[in-house]
Sequence to fold (600 residues):
Amino acid sequence: MCGIVGYIGWREAAPLLLNGLKRLEYRGYDSAGIALLNGSLLVMKQKGSVSGLEVAAEGLSLDMQSATLGIGHTRWATHGEPSDNNAHPHKNALGDIAVIHNGIIENYSALKQELTAQGLIDKIWKSDQSLDLESATRSALRHVDGAYGICVISSREPDKIVVARKGSPLVIGIGTGEFFIASDAAPLIEHTNKVVYLSDGELAVITREGYTVKTIENIEQEKIITELDFSLEKIEKGGFEHFMLKEIFEQPAVMHDVMRGRVRLEEGRICLGGIEDYLDRLKHAKRIVICACGTSWHAALIGEYLIEEFARIPVEVDYASEFRYRNPIVGVDDVVIVISQSGETADTLAALRTAKEKGALVMGICNVVGSTIARETLCGMYTHAGPEVGVASTKAFTAQVIMLYMLALALSKGRTLSHDEIALNLKELSRIPEKATRILELESQIKDIAERFQGARNALYLGRGYNFPVALEGALKLKEISYIHAEGYPAAEMKHGPIALIDKDMPVIFIATRDSTYAKILSNIEEVRSRKGRVIAIANEGDQEVSRLAEHVIYIPQSSGPITPLLTVIPLQLLAYHIATFRGCNVDRPRNLAKSVTVE
Ligand code: F6R
Fold:
């Protein structure tokens, strides 16, 4: 979703801003712009890509080329079509203030009538000559309802950038005699690893000499400087054609990283530092509710199965967006777990706050260190999957599932599972990275299958038990990057409706691993075959039965039921990736999608 960058220092701002915007491309956008301040203020913006803007910037005057202060934006349209005019930054009527805004101003309609052609900050500033850019911005924000991350510059005060946030993330990067601003850490990492995360309701004034952070109510804030722990190489493609493919292939290493220090194989125990102090309360929860969106919601469903099976604690899974608006029955005896790769998803954040208000213990599973959700939860665990740049989530999903697997085992300790049973499960978990590596070796076979099905218009993904959420995830991956309509279903539900869709053109992807529902799945495959559906099956190595029934079989290593999602999802990620690339789709930047959905 929309991205913000800013620079104030001693270097030429334009190339830094454009490069920063490129690093934010993965968030999704439809237009881009920059504002440069060097005596006068220049705004350059247009619909389309950052590279298009880069070409336009070649025509910058010498004055603007040497500007050392500026702000930049990638816009993902929510209100108003993508167009040159709607792109940010926006200028006031006089052309001496430039503003960038992320988020949704909910009372925009009322404000617009009052302010057309002038600008809120400008109006307030003009009405009181004693104000400066900072206080005019602060006053303006008091009139605004909704979410924002904003950057303001003005030729009336040419040596500062004012930024503020509520809902939309903002980070300040600290260099030597220079400062950077960004929506997330990706554009900062090549310049500095020292950052300050702004919290909701904070406003910062940044000059070349330093920065101050206050609340919108003007109360000074002490901010902690955080050291980023990822390198530039992690946000580059490293020889892969797309970030998505790189991230799929990173999964074995990520699996190791998630478990590192947490799975103590020799002792047969799990150590979850981030929740240790709350483990007892978690174990005695009346109920656990897990809230998330999209792929994280699919991981949550697997978490439900795992926690109920191992720890025997009742679990409910809710879409974060629904949880918030249906007045949920949640109280002090409940635990609410929010799962989010980005840690910034607006609906998940809202669900977290609702749960907190109702007195539940709120725990987070996030990937992005220092993200808003991670900071607002009482306790939690980072997935340590590294930056996920591909819009379609892959490695974050497997990391979340491992996290939930470890959590389920930790909750069962001393209650439902013996030490030996836990040790056995951990042993199996520790073998998963090696099995995942073997599945990745099947890429060329999966690519061949993808080539045959690239022309499909619909696809059905079917699985049972632990593999039902994987079917949902496989279908989501395919539709979001290839634009083929796909649906995931519990295999047995097929007979209650979707079977009507099956004909000779319909690919049906079955997850048919050997577990308690294996025989039933075989019957489901027969049902599809007898209607001439085209069956692709994910099955366990050595399974001859499935090869008799399916047109294509992708064989994966054997594992126990609860752990299979970590393996079965990988061929589905690769299948979606290759189908999408055969169709010529831009898999890293699928149309209309944003990596981090910071509006509700
Ligand atoms: C799908 C995908 C999205 C996200 C969803 C939640 O590939 O990436 O469905 O999973 O927007 O995002 P996070 O996990 O950042 O809260």
User: Anything to note?
Assistant: DSSP finds 21 helices and 26 strands in the chain. The chain has three domains: 3-228, 236-430, 440-590. The longest helix spans residues 294-311.
